[in-house]
Amino acid sequence: MTTHDGIASALAVALARRSGSHADCPLFDDPYAQVFIDAAVSRGCQLPTDETAARINGIANYASSRTKWFDEYFIAAGAHGLEQMVIMAAGLDARAWRLPWVSGTTVFEIDQPGVLKFKNEVMREHGESPAVSRYVAVPADLFDGWPEALRARGFDSSEPTAWAVEGLLPYVADGPHLLFDRIHAMSPPGSRLAVEAVGTGVVDWLTEQGWLVTTIGAPELMTRYGRCGDHSEADASMDTTFVDATRGR
């Protein structure tokens, strides 16, 4: 296994989830984070350096709050009747396995082929089955061609969908508008979209396209969950806004 498989960055986030899941008062339970870490090491993947590990620990409260917020978003979407979920850049978070999904729900996970191959191999090796009624892995380029790959795997663009864009926007070199153009084109009224964003550009764009938007800043979210933030450790993370939007037209 090499870092070209996309495992390295996903592994760093898994380390943060492991830290959050093992906290004294955890916001979520992710028993699979350690499973993925152990499996990656056994396959020859190196863990992050001490410096990187220290930086991961420095944003543990932020990462835990982010995970909790997206978990609650999906649970609420299911409670409001949405049965089709799409997780962009799913990485090694095992939401399809660990969340209490409503019966009849389909979860599509889009990510690099190497990441999804590793993830599903490890889960099969440990005898773990998704908790969702239908789980669909969609190996695809996250910046081009993923809509076609998603449709080819059975995605129904006439059905209201809950989308999640977590940890992806910093890697979108040409700006997020093309990504959201594609999501918008595949989302009928009633669809929902959760985004980890920086600045007001995403909110402004969604509002212009007829989405009803609510937001909460990272400091406020962490206060809600009883987690303190440290600007010196979290760097730009504390400038993040969490966006929950519903398409109204």
TrEMBL record:
Key word ATP-binding present: no
Entry-linked Pfam families: LCM
Domain of life: Bacteria
GO biological process terms on file: methylation
Keyword Transferase: yes
UniProt keyword list: Methyltransferase, S-adenosyl-L-methionine, Transferase
EC number(s) from the headed UniProt entry: 2.1.1.-
Gene3D superfamilies in UniProt: Vaccinia Virus protein VP39
GO molecular function: methyltransferase activity
PANTHER family: S-ADENOSYL-L-METHIONINE-DEPENDENT METHYLTRANSFERASE YKTD-RELATED, S-ADENOSYL-L-METHIONINE-DEPENDENT METHYLTRANSFERASES SUPERFAMILY PROTEIN
Function: Exhibits S-adenosyl-L-methionine-dependent methyltransferase activity.
Family: Belongs to the UPF0677 family.
Protein name: S-adenosyl-L-methionine-dependent methyltransferase
Source species taxonomy: Bacteria, Bacillati, Actinomycetota, Actinomycetes, Mycobacteriales
